[in-house]
Amino acid sequence: MDLKTTVTAITIVALRSEQIVEIFVKHDVVPMLLIQCEKCEGSSIRCLLLRALSTMCCTTSAVRHFEKYSGIQLITDILEEDSRPEPERSEAVTLLAQVTAPWIEDNYSLRGLPEYTKSLVKFLTKFLKNTRCCQNLLLCAAALSNLSAMDTHNCIKYLISQKSIEELLKAIEHRRNTSVYVLEQVASLIANVSSIDSARKHLIEIRAPAALMCFLQVKNVGENVEKRLQQKAMIALSRLCSDHKAAKQIVEIGGVDKLVKLCREKENRFNSDAVLVAALASLRKIVETCGKEVISYQDSQELIEPRLLDSFLAYSNQNESYV
């Protein structure tokens, strides 16, 4: 059986269940695939090997094998070579997004990642700037978001120096009907970066608050992804809008009305009390910064003047519990 047939078979079988993946891991299939990636000369075969690795690395044990055998270095080597065909680099980004995925159990760090974070952010930013493929844009956004959660301080420093988020926002602006999944990953990335005080000025300068408010206008694309997008966007906004420039951006694009709706209309926020708290906090920061004239008298009386807890109880999805 030739290598192409073998690798394709491994990928197909691994897709069936995590139990099968664990059997492969036990028999050192992950390091074998990594070795073949380094040895093979054909890009098409390397694409198949990278895809097999992406399929395999859905469990903690598989990811641990991947990091043990210098998988991050392999990805970095592929991305840094401009001569590599775009499909090959795309498969490498897919693998990076997979092994850094937050939904994999106990996947909080990768051995060797800090050493390569700077290069990875640089190459991902370059790739997303040059690609015309929406799928590649999504993969880059997901990989950057995952990196910003896994190696926060290092990654954020390089995200700012490489203008990665600015380039993502430009890419979204220049495309018509950008996938909501891209918006979700970018919102998640901005939320991660906004957790660092020193990074917020940069986000405000590139008008991230205004972009997030635009993201919140997305409708009828699927409840689950809309929920995730809304929650990530609101986390970031609640952190950013204490700043006068951020608050002003939101006011200028009519964002106050949207935040009021999120507070008052449960169905508008998918009955999420977390979004309610973030929206209330954001409104209060905006009014404190820009003045009460940015909000109606009634909204001020009901959403701003009372204690935060009282406003929360009045509009919470759980308010019946407190009666």
TrEMBL record:
Top-level taxon of the source organism: Eukaryota
UniProt cross-references to Pfam families, sorted A to Z: Insc_C
Signal peptide limits: none
Protein inscuteable homologue C-terminal domain location: 7-323
Name listed for the protein in its UniProt record: Protein inscuteable homologue C-terminal domain-containing protein
